[in-house]
Design a protein that fits this description.
Radius of gyration: 22 Å
Number of domains: 1
Largest sheet: 14 strands, antiparallel, barrel
Number of helices: 4
Order of helices and strands: HHHEEEEEHEEEEEEEEEEE
């Protein structure tokens, strides 16, 4: 009886994994937006209306026009203690012009499920209006993890071979297009809008380890788009507030409100706090706090280190990043 129960459990797990692998882009872990860049996270994931640093290629490419120095940063996050995300971003103003370029790279996962996103962005300003565009390349691979036969000694060799033969593996490739807008009515107020994945086709391919079993094979689909509206208010030289609103773009999604503040203390020390609130009946609200050190080394050379702590109803997490400007 115990052996039968274990066999039924294993078949159920394999069948579920097979179905998920065939519909990988529909599960929450597929190119999920966990919020990248320690500074935006510390302000409650609200950054679309500000986007004034190396994180602008990801958050709002129109914000690139605010960049005056070359900036490059790196951060890492362990989502729910399960998946490691590496994030790097760099921006560069074009000398003597009113436009700038930037790039962001995100990698995550392991052999079971690995993802890579590369964002190349461009921004240009016309008087009080900035426009931006980011072209994205996405790649995913899954099912490349090896299974250990010793973990299934309760089954005989034929049962193990049958289970291993149903393991699905494959890859995916796609492109995406983000469109950004920013309005600068004054030095104290900014308004921003970003349409993420306005165009985002993906091509998936999967197959089973054994020819005796069927996977879905090749198919195409579009990733869903996201619209985010943001604002930033500079209350003083050393203090600002940000608010973002992300409306639900389908019946399966939630309206989100995000807000945060940032203050600079004793010249080199920054403090941040914020929250992300879902307009629903679920316990999915998050709160964040953060801090940062911004140290001038020489002339334009600056080093910045940021820390953010996310209070999440599922599991708390922390972020740390390092940035250089010159």
């Amino acid at each position: 009886m115990k052996r039968l129960i274990l066999l039924l459990f294993t078949i159920t797990v394999l069948a579920t994994g097979n179905a998920q692998a065939q519909e990988l882009s529909m599960i929450p872990g597929s190119f999920v937006d966990i919020g990248f860049g320690t500074r935006p996270v510390g302000m409650g994931f609200a950054f679309v209306g500000l986007a004034d640093d190396e994180n602008s290629p990801y958050w709002n490419p129109a914000g690139l026009t605010q960049i005056t120095d070359i900036k490059a940063g790196f951060s890492q996050a362990d989502q729910l203690g399960l998946i490691t995300y590496n994030y790097a971003s760099a921006t560069m103003p074009i000398p003597g012009q009113n436009h700038a370029v930037g790039i962001s790279v995100i990698s995550s996962g392991d052999d079971a499920m690995e993802e890579l996103s590369i964002h190349a962005a461009y921004g240009i300003r016309f008087n009080i209006v900035s426009l931006g565009v980011a072209v994205k390349y996405r790649n995913a691979s899954f099912g490349n993890n090896s299974l250990n036969r010793d973990d299934y000694v309760v089954f005989d060799d034929a049962e193990i071979d049958a289970g291993f033969g149903q393991q699905v593996f494959g890859d995916a490739n796609g492109i995406g297009l983000d469109l950004g807008l920013m309005i600068h009515p004054s030095d104290q107020v900014q308004l921003g809008v970003v349409l993420r994945d306005a165009y985002a086709p993906m091509s998936w391919n999967s197959e089973a380890r054994s020819v005796e079993y069927q996977a879905r094979g090749e198919y195409d689909e579009d990733l869903p788009y996201e619209l985010i509206i943001g604002s930033a208010l500079k209350l003083s030289k050393n203090f600002l507030a940000v608010v973002d609103f992300q409306p639900a773009t389908s019946s399966e999604r939630t309206n989100w409100v995000r807000a945060g503040v940032e203050g600079r203390l004793v010249n080199v020390l920054m403090v941040r706090a914020g929250t992300e609130q879902g307009i629903n009946e679920l316990d999915d609200d998050r709160f964040t706090v953060g801090t940062g050190l911004d140290i001038k080394i020489k002339d334009k050379l600056r080093l910045q280190s940021d820390f953010a702590y996310v209070i999440d109803p599922i599991q708390n997490s922390q972020r740390i990043s390092f940035t250089v400007s010159f």
